[in-house]
Input
Amino acid sequence: MAMVQLKCPETGKPIDTRDVPPEYAHAPVATVATHREIPCPYCGKGHIWTSSHFSHAMIALRDSPDATRVVVEPALTEGVSATALP
Output
């Protein structure tokens, strides 16, 4: 099981978004565009979580099957980055 997290742009701290079972790391990712707001326990604001963020997280998990978490960070100019961590 790996935890997918969104990095708070204000504090840099990770916000848990969902657990992903290992078998999902190789499952196809839906291309339906979705988004939702995640309340941040650190800065008090809401941060947007999108299907694109989830897709990047799944790619990072696929490439790092031993990861226990993936931190997704929306970049200001270059899209999204996802980092798999042990």
Observations:
- DSSP finds one helix and six strands in the chain.
- The mean pLDDT is 87.
- The helical segments are 51-63.
- Residues 15 and 41 are 8 Å apart (CA to CA).
